[in-house]
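hiii so my PI (J.) wants the whole complex modelled not just the main chain, which honestly fair. so below is everything: two entries, each one labled with what it is. i double checked the lines twice but i was tired so who knows lol
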Amino acid sequence: MHARRSTRRGESSERRGAPETGAPLSHPARAGPHVSPGRGVIARAASRLTAEERLAVLFLCPALLLMAAFIFYPVGTTIVTAFGATDKLGRVRGFVGWGNFRALGADPAFWQIFRRTFLWTALGVTVKTSAGLAMALLLNLPFRGRKVARMLTVIPWAIPYPISAIVWQWTYNSQFGLLNQFLKSTGLWPHPPAWLAEPRTAFAANMAVDIWIGLPFFALVFLAGLQAISPEYYEAAAIDGAGVGARFVSVTLPFLRPVIVMGSLLSVIWTFNDFSVPYIVTKGGPMNTTDILVTHMYKTAFQFLDFGPASAIAVITFVTLLVFSLLYARLYFREVA
Amino acid sequence: MQRKVALAAIAALCIGLLALPARGGGAASVRAVWMEYDARYNTFWQQLKKEFEAANPGVTVDNVVVPWNEGHDRLVTWIAGNQAPDIAIVGTRWIIEFNKMDVVQPADTLLPKAFIDKFIQPALEARINGRLYGVPVALSARSLYYRTDLVKTPPQTWQDLLAAAREAAKSPGVYGIGVSGKKFAELTEYVYYLYGNGGDFFVTNPDGSYGRCRVNDAAGVEALQFMVDLANKDKVTEPNVGENDRGTLQDLFLAGKLAMIETGPWFGGMIQERAKTMPFAVAPMPHNQGKPQHTLLVTDSIIVFKSAKNKDAVVKFLEYAYRDGPRLEFDKDFGMLPTEKSVARDAYFQTDFYRPFIQQLPTAKPWPLTADWSKVEDVMWDAVTAALLNTKSAKAALDDACKEIDTARGIK
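here's the output for the full assembly
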C-alpha cells in the first residue's frame, strides 16, 4: 500500500517538474516577487500551486462545499449542541458543559440501550460475516443455476431498507403473518411466539431482519474476493497434499483477510447505525426494548424535542465509531503493510 | 487562452449553481401538509386543490400527505430546519407544543369572526388563553363497535362489557374485545378506561393548569388493572396484545376475529368498504359501574405557521376549503363528526350510526393540552405495555410512570 502511494507521488512530482518536456507548466505567479504580501494566506498558497493543481482544487470545490455544508457543518453544530441547553427548536440558549452527558450517564435506560447497541452490532456483524462467507463459498462452486442463485442473493440488499422492514413487520404478525402460518401449517412449530409482542423475541426478530438485509453484501464482497484468488494457489496446495480444510485455512482465508476486515468494519458502522429496521419493525418497542442508540437519539430529538441530550447521544455514537474505526484501520493497515 | 476560458466557465457554473434561488418566484403558493386519514386522502386534497386553483388563478396549492404516525416528528424536523409548511393538519394536542416554539399564527388573527362562529363548541379545542390557534378540521368521539350476531345487548358498563366479551369469546376463532399494547400515535384504550372510571392524567390546579401526574391514583390503577385482567385473567382479548396497535386491532375486527372494538367514527366506513356483510352496531363507550360516562373527544386542527409568506392566499384557501360542500364530503369520506353547525344539521348525520357519537359529545373529555404530551404519552405507553405483559403490576407501572412524567415536566 505504502509502496503504491509513493509511486503515485513519484509520478506526480515527475510530471510537475517535467523539465524535459519543456512545457511551461508553472504559472508565472508562482515566482515570489509577483505576489503582494497583502493578498493573504490563500493567495500565497494559491501562488505555490501549478495551474494543473489549481484546476484540481477548482474541481474539488463543489465537493468540498457540499461536504462542508452537509458533513462538517452538521457535525460541528451537533457537537456544539451536545454541550448546550436548547429550546424546543434545537436552538442553543446557553451552555451546560458536560451536563447533557452527565444526565445520560445517570439514566439507567441509556446504559441499557448502550449495551444493547453493542450486543446488536456484535451479533449482527458476526452472523453476517460468517454466514456471508459460507454463502460466498457456496456461490463460488460450479453448479447448475449458479447465475440465478447469485442474482437471487442480491434481492434483499437491492430492496430499499424501509420496504423490507415493512414487509417483515407484516410477516411476523401472529394473526396474519406468513411466518407463523408457515411454521404452524408445516408442523415445524405448532405454537410459535408472537414475535413482535415480547421484548426478547422482538429483539431476535429485528436482528433477523438486519441480517437478512445485510447478508447479500457480505456474500457478494466475499465472492468477489474469492474470484480474485488465482486457482494456481489451490492447485499448488493440492499438489502439496492439502485437503479442503487446509486449503480453506491456508489459501482462502489469508487472501480473503483484507476483504473480511474491511467488510466487517463497514458492517460494524452500518449495523451500529441501523435506524430503519428497529424503528420500522418495532419502533423500538415493546417498552423501548429494541431501541438502539440511533433510534433513541431520534426519539429524544424529534419526539421529545430534547435536542441537547439527543446531540450528546449523537456525539457518543460518533466518538464510539470513530475510536473503533481508528483502531480497526490501524490493525488493517499494519496487516496490509 | 482555452484553459482560461474553461476555468471561467467552470467558475461561472459553480457561482450559478450556488446562486440558484431556493424556490421559484411567481404565483402565490400555499404549502400544505395533510396527515393521512386513509388511502383516499390524497385524492380528496388533490381534487380540492384543482378546484381551488381553477377558481383562484394565480394561487397554487402544494399538497404534501404524511402518515399520522410520522406526522409529528416530520413537522418538528421541518420546523427545526426552517422549512415549516404554510399550513398543516395537526393533532390539536400538539398545538401547545408548537405554540411553545412560537411558530403558530393564532387563527383568529387571520380569519373573520363569522368564519370561527361556524364551528360547534366542542370542536374549538385549540383555544389557549382565549386565543384560537387552530381551525378544527376533524372531530371524533370514541365509541364501542360490536358485532350484533355475537353481542345481543350493547354493554353499558365494564361489567356488561366483560360478560359480553366472555360470551362472544365462546364462538370459535373469535376474541371478545380488542386491547392494544403497541405504541401508536395516541394512547388508545387506556384513556377510554381511565376517563370511564372518573380518572384523569393530571391534577388540575386552581388556575386551570396541569399539576402532578395522577394516573397512579385508585381510578387510574383500577382502569389499567381492568385492561390487564381482560387480557391475562379473563383472557377475552386477542392473544399477544403487545403486538397490536389500533390499526391491527381494526384489521382483526374486519377479519371477523374480534367481537368488540373501541375506536372512532371512521371505522364505520372501513367496515362498509372491507367487510360489507358484517353485522355491527355502535354504542357509547362503557364506563365503570357507579362512575359517570365519559369518552375521549379528539379534534384535529389546521394551523397556520407564522412563517407563511402568503397569508392572504392561506385565508383564501381556508375559506374555500371550509364551504359546507367540501366539509360534508370530508366528513363522509373519512368518517368524522361534523365540526360546523350547518354541516351537523345535514341528514347524513341523523342516523343510528352517528347518534351514539354525537350523543356523547357533551360529556366527552379531550386529551390534556400540555407541551410535554409526547413524552407523557410515550411513558404512559410503556407503563400500559409493561402491565399488559406482566412485567410490572398495574400499580407499580403507573407509580413509575408518574415519577418519570413529573420529572420530565419539572414537577418535584
